[in-house]
Each structure stands twice: as structure tokens, then as C-alpha cells.
Amino acid sequence: MEKIIIEQSKELNGEVVISGSKNSSLPILAATILYSGTYKLSNVPDISDVRTMLKLIESLGGKYSFKNNEVVVDSSEISHYEAPYELVKTMRASVVVWGSLLGRFGKAKISFPGGCAIGDRPVDQHIKGFESIGYSTKISNGYLETKKITSIGGEHFFDLKSVTGCENVILASTLGDKKTILKNCPEEPEVVDLINFLNFCGGKIVKKSDTIEIMPSSSLKAPNKAYKIISDRIEAGTFGVLGCLPGNKIKLKNINSDDLQVPLKIIKKMGTRVDIAKSSITIEGGGEIKPFNIKTESFPGFPTDLQAQFMVAALLANGESKIIEEIFPSRFIHVAELRKLGANIKLKNNTAIVNGVASLNGARMQASDLRASACLILAGIIAKNKSEINRVYHLDRGYEKIDNKLMNLGVKIWREKE
Ligand code: EPU
């Protein structure tokens, strides 16, 4: 295993090209299973979660190539309909093959994904959605076994906005027998990207605010050109936090600022200068960081996947910031690690009160999940002296070449064997 060492790094300056979105790539790769064919995708990030999804597709009988951020999947020989424990346990997002396997085979067997470091992560919304459109699920020996029991289609109202739950039901109904109407759907750009990809391949899906209508298609066919995955708004927000720190000036390239409106509003509240151009944003820290309040919510609200990283800016703010986590109420494992640096954070239920301090001191920290790892990296950059972060494999699940991108901005960062 590797650990990351970081020395305090100031006056960061330069450009970062933001990679393609992890949370778009995963369901879109899963969507290539739905109908036999060859699918080309571009702007796919070279991260370990994408590699895991490609292995999963291969284990089902698919073939792929992955070079220079372009993936070609040939799904014509997919013949299995089971996502085994070994793959689901390494990546919870493997559950997004569930809907595609149902659409292709009328049945699927998925290892039950357990909870994880960010909390208990149930799949009842997936199951209820499948049930409303004609599938039934039983749980047997740790597996979810779902099969078609009647003609596919119908209406479903989600009790809550689940991103992969909704994506799964879209996938399971795209090749259905009759129209499907889904209500109270999440509006994350990644859900929209999946719909756009399916329509690019001949699907007939229309989204009107939080309602999605899926007209059944009998087949899918990808045009010869590649479908371009949207850029990763969470990676952009992570580097955006670095830009907010006094003395730093960072230009984020290959981004869509519309997907980042609420995080950018918070960044401006911190006293940061933000210049938005067509596909880039320049973020320049002010003289001090002003305190701010955030509450995580479904899109267009503030994303839970940026909560831990934004907390780092609050650590040195000139006053008290309040961070409320509404999506995963116990997603605060990073707090105990940040306290090792001298951070002043009080936790009560799903709320963190952060009082800014004058400075932080480097320490040895342990990463627990992907976004917490990014948070600890940012904290290591601002803390005096040297910090060490263990278990960084979490980071490589979702951030492409992050060490290089940080080094290019002037961060003193390297890896050593643990
Ligand atoms: N929920 C249920 N029942 C369900 C599904 C979800 O109660 O059947 C609850 C969850 O416990 C949570 C809320 O609904 O409180 C939202 O969860 P959601 O289902 O939307 O999460 P997800 O689809 O499992 C995706 C992202 C996560 C991101 C969340 C929230 C992917 C592959 N994953 O997860 O990304 O945090 O949406 O936006 O798209 C990450 O990238 O680090 C990450 C964790």
C-alpha cells in the first residue's frame, strides 16, 4: 500500500484540466450492457472505479479497450447476468449494472451491497422502482435476485431522490414493453448525462424537471462517433477549494459552470474572486477566508460529495461556519482526522460547527473514503510542516492523476510505500 506525503504549499498558481465525470462514466458504461453492440465513449477518466466497471463488464462476457480516455465496449457477447460479491464489494457503484442486466435478460443477480464508510446505504428505492414497472426481487444468500414478472412499464413515484436508484430504473425500462413515467427523480447532471447517452443510442427518454418519461425502444444502436462524458463537477469543486485559499489562483479548464452554481456561490461568499468563461473558471483567493454555511442537498443543492473538501476552507476561516449533511448524515469520518491538525470542529448529529483557527499543524492521517481522502489532501496542503495520509487507494478510485495535477500547481506532494 502507498501513503501520500505533503508539505505545506502556498501561492499555488496554474491551470488544471478537469477530467470526465466518474459518476457519469459508471452508469453510462453499465448502459452499454443493455443492448448488444459496440459503444465508444470519450472523456472517460482513467481511475480505478472505471477499471473495476470495465472488469465487471468483462466478467459478464463483454470486451473493451481503454486508451487515452477513450473506451470502446463490445457488449455483443454478454451472456451472464450476475454481479458477483468480489466486484460489488470493491465498488458499491457496481449496482448500476442491475438495471441494464434486467433490460437485457429480464433477470439479474446482484451481490447485496453493504453499507460503507459514508453510512448505511440501502437499495429499497431501486427495488420499489423495479417493482412498479414489472419486476420482482427476492433476497437469497446475500444476493438480490430480480426478474421480470409482467410486461415492463408503468408509473413510479420515488419516496426520495436516489441517483443510482433512478438510473437503474431508467435502464430497466428503456427497452420495456410500454411507457414508463418516473416522478420525484433526482436532477443530478450525471442522471441527465445517462439519459443523453441512451437517447444518443436511439432511446426515447424525456426529462421535464423531476419527471422522466421513457417511451419503450425495441433496440439501441450507437452512432459511429464517440459519446463525450461530461466533466467531473466534484473534481472541479475539489480544486476550486484550493483556489479559495489566500495567495492561490487556479484556472479550472474543461468544466461546465452550470453544474457548479451552488458551490460557486459558496466560494464567492468566502471572499474569493471567480471569473467564469465558456468552459473554464478562474478562482483567486481573497485576503482572508470569510465563514460560510452549507447544507447538502439533491441537485441543484450543494453536493454531499463536496462537503468534506469545503470543510477544509472553513478550518482557516475568519469565524464560525456551519455544515449540515442532509444526504448521508454520518458522512463526517474526516472530522476526527482534521482535529489531529488542530482544527476546531464540533459535531452534533448531522451538523458540524467549524471555528476557524489561525493555523494548522501537519500530522499523520488516515483516509476512509474517496471524498474524505480528497479533504485530507487539501488539509495537508494548508497545514504547516509535513502531513502523511495513509490508505490513499481510496483517492485513486475517483481522481485521475491527482498528484500530477497538484504538483503542476506547486504542491509539494509525493508517494511512499506504507
Ligand atoms: N437511499 C435510500 N434507499 C435507496 C437508495 C438511497 O434510502 O434505495 C438514500 C441514501 O441512504 C442517501 C440518499 O438516499 O441518504 C441518496 O443516496 P443515492 O442513492 O442518491 O446515492 P447513490 O446513488 O448510492 C450517488 C453517487 C455518490 C453520491 C450520491 C449522492 C454514484 C456512483 N454515486 O450514490 O457518489 O454521494 O449519489 O449524491 O453516482 C462519490 O462519488 O464519492 C459518491 C459517494
Overview of this protein structure:
It contains 14 helices and 24 strands. With 418 residues, the chain is an alpha/beta fold. It has two domains: 2-19 and 231-417, Enolpyruvate transferase domain (UDP-n-acetylglucosamine1-carboxyvinyl-transferase, Chain, Alpha-beta prism); 22-228, UDP-n-acetylglucosamine1-carboxyvinyl-transferase, Chain. A hairpin with a 3-residue loop joins β16 (273-276) and β17. α5 (124-132) packs parallel to α6 (163-174) and α6 (163-174) runs parallel beside α7 (189-200). The chain binds uridine-diphosphate-2(N-acetylglucosaminyl) butyric acid.
Poorly predicted runs are none
Radius of gyration over alpha carbons? 21 Å
Helix content, binned percent = 25-40%
State the CATH class of the largest domain.
Alpha Beta
Topology:
Layout: E1 2-7, E2 13-17, H1 22-31, E3 38-42, H2 48-59, E4 63-67, E5 70-74, E6 82-83, H3 85-90, H4 97-105, E7 107-111, H5 124-132, E8 135-140, E9 143-148, E10 154-157, H6 163-174, E11 180-183, H7 189-200, E12 204-208, E13 211-215, E14 227-228, H8 233-244, E15 249-253, H9 261-269, E16 273-276, E17 280-284, E18 293-295, H10 307-315, E19 320-324, H11 333-339, E20 344-348, E21 351-355, E22 364-366, H12 370-382, E23 386-390, H13 393-396, H14 402-409, E24 412-417
Parallel strand pairs: 2-15, 3-14, 6-7, 10-11, 18-19, 22-23
Antiparallel strand pairs: 1-23, 1-24, 3-5, 4-5, 7-9, 8-9, 11-13, 12-13, 15-17, 16-17, 19-21, 20-21
The site of uridine-diphosphate-2(N-acetylglucosaminyl) butyric acid has 23 residues, from α1, α5, α6 and α12.
